[in-house]
Amino acid sequence: MANIKVIVAGPRGRMGFEAVKLVHNTEHFDLVAVIDRKHDGGNLSDVEGFQGIDAPIFSDIKECFSKVEADVLVDLTTPEVGMYHTETALQYGIRPVVGTTGFTKEDLAKLDALTKEKGLGCIIAPNFAIGAILMMKFSQMAAKYFKDVEIIEMHHDQKLDAPSGTAAKTADLISSVREAKVQGHPSEKETIPGARGADVEGMRIHSVRLPGLVAHQQVLFGSAGELLTVRHDSFNRGSFMSGVKLSVETIMNLDVLVYGLENIIE
Ligand SMILES: NC(=O)C1=CN([C@@H]2O[C@H](COP(=O)(O)OP(=O)(O)OC[C@H]3O[C@@H](n4cnc5c(N)ncnc54)[C@H](OP(=O)(O)O)[C@@H]3O)[C@@H](O)[C@H]2O)C=CC1
Ligand SMILES: O=C(O)C1=N[C@H](C(=O)O)C[C@H](O)C1
After folding, report:
1. Any idea which residues are catalytic in this one (predicted)?
2. Does 125 belong to an annotated binding site?
């Protein structure tokens, strides 16, 4: 079988850097280009940290798709840019694997429609780490028995979106089995706005941002006389790479939108 031709958007970023190395080091993947707004027209091998990794650099994604033959775009940028890149990839017949978070429900609906129209696979992965997928699945299982849930997600202080994509997806999975319930005292009042966190059908999400953190989440389930905590920690970005690899391989056989790796992990 031919190698899978991959473009990475955001190569100098914390995730993009790891993804470039993954693609470069995977025998059946070829890194055919990168999207980087700061080095248009150059070659990645001339950019600090990428010595020996040969790939043309484009700042304009449409120019890149017009000139380079590719199968998959791996996007690791920002919410607005990521949405534009994903839509453009689908328009050009290229399958997007999107790690970028911060997409709204409307964005997801738009991409679902576009994926169907084009008959192309698209993976939106709020979290690529296997442990994080299990943490979300275990939380979904627990929510069937515990209706009172608080999600605490904790990230580095350079993160742009809140809540995290993982927390939003966890809330989604929990909502699918939990009847909406207003938690806490019915008459509770916030004397400082935001004290009780974001409200998703009565469950609460709290976003912590601190230097030193990478990506962490705990889901607390409370009931009379007991507390269940489900927790996951990513200590480095290497933790996400097996999920990126699996996504690039799997997307070649998909023709629908997949939101969350729990849908493709056996
Ligand atoms: N799904 C998952 O498992 C994970 C997802 N993420 C998500 O991945 C995304 C990237 O995270 P992270 O690597 O930490 O972020 P970084 O800020 O380290 O990297 C973002 C990259 O996007 C680039 N970028 C920003 N704006 C543009 C633009 N207009 N055009 C082209 N490139 C642009 C930046 O380049 P420049 O230097 O020029 O600004 C930078 O290289 C985030 O949305 C994050 O939430 C993160 C970890 C795991
Ligand atoms: O920005 C990050 O770092 C991460 N973003 C993703 C998210 O928003 O859930 C995945 C992981 O938590 C790291």
Report:
1. 155 (proton donor/acceptor), 159 (proton donor)
2. yes
